[in-house]
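#lab-general

N.A. 3:47 PM
ok so I finally got the sequence cleaned up, no stray characters, all 417 residues accounted for. can someone with queue access submit it? mine expired

B.Y. 3:52 PM
send it over

N.A. 3:53 PM
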Amino acid sequence: MRVSGPHGRYGADADPPADHQDCLPSIFPRTMGKNCMTYLQEVVERGLASNMIARFEQAFAEEMGVRHCIATPGCTPALAVLAAAFEFEPGDEIIVSSVTDYGTVQGLIGERYIPVFADTAPGSINISAESIERVITDRTRAVLVVHLTGLMCDMDPILELAERYHLIVYEDACQALFSGYHSRLAGTFGLAAGFSFDSEKTLGSDVGGCVITDDDDLAERTRFIGQNRGGEMRTGFGRIHTSHGYAHRMTQSTAAITLAQLENIRPQIAHRDAMARLITGKLRAIPGIKPLQIPDYQTTYSCWMVGFNIDADVFRCDTESFGRQLSEAGIPGIGTGKYYLMPAAVTYLQSRARDHIYPYSMPPASYTYEYSADSCPNAGNFLETFLRWSTFCDKYERSHCDLVAKIVASVAERNRI
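B.Y. 4:20 PM
back already:
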């Protein structure tokens, strides 16, 4: 039997190992909500006059227990809209996790804010109140918290810190849909939050994202800036643009799919939580393998990707080789995530800061900024030995968790010193 596919599980010309004939499930094709076709047909039959976007926004806001949901075409636009809606000044600093995706910071950079990367907590993929406090200055205006892989940051100390320094807290919950912190949902702690519904995400639509908030003024400003292009009607003239704005609107068809997907997401989240915890326990039993630690405060782990570190002193191969062997043995999509180290990944910011290009000129910058892996040593060291796969999905069953552990244990034994 030959197995190949979109994730290159065994390679075009390779047979899978005899003891790994069973395959781990792929995220695609997605399991679709039973009303997807009904809602899409309604969009077409009503000639694009349906209220599908408003229906999705209302349904998602109710699920999250918040007042407002503003639908966007993706997670990057959602966070960009928020950055614009806050109306900070160029050169103002926003503290953000050093381990994240570029979409987290794209909007900050576009608004000429200065991203300041907080190091992660030792041995963790996420930032902490302690690492945030070390980089607060008199130009800090907000903290953008990222709950990477679905693991939640310890929010109570972060909120206490922000209150002490009079800072806004908002959340990138794109990988943490319905993750729970003491039973409270990711995205409901700060002033606002951004979410992703891209096809590979936990609630997978064709594309899509949204902003949620309980703040009426921020919601109105987000729609004005993010969807209405900063436009107002002037009597006798027509539309004028009083602010630099965008047209980041979710489409009717995306809203239809996302609404249908939302209707069956809760049991899928519960299943992901159970399977992620099962895999974590099995991986922890393998010497030299250190799975991501699920904190005690995390009541629900809406796991988007499974990950673990290898003990470099235990194995004779490096992290890249270990990951390749796991991929060849049957774990699709596994590999390193070094590109998540944002201070090292945003090379154009490195040159801008070095050359004091606006807003890194002084003023408005208050000091000389440096972006490099050296600026966040905990994060850099963590990612050096980190492997993850984002093909983990709600199709996993106990037998798949057993297979993951079997594959990892086999590769570990093969490379053990």
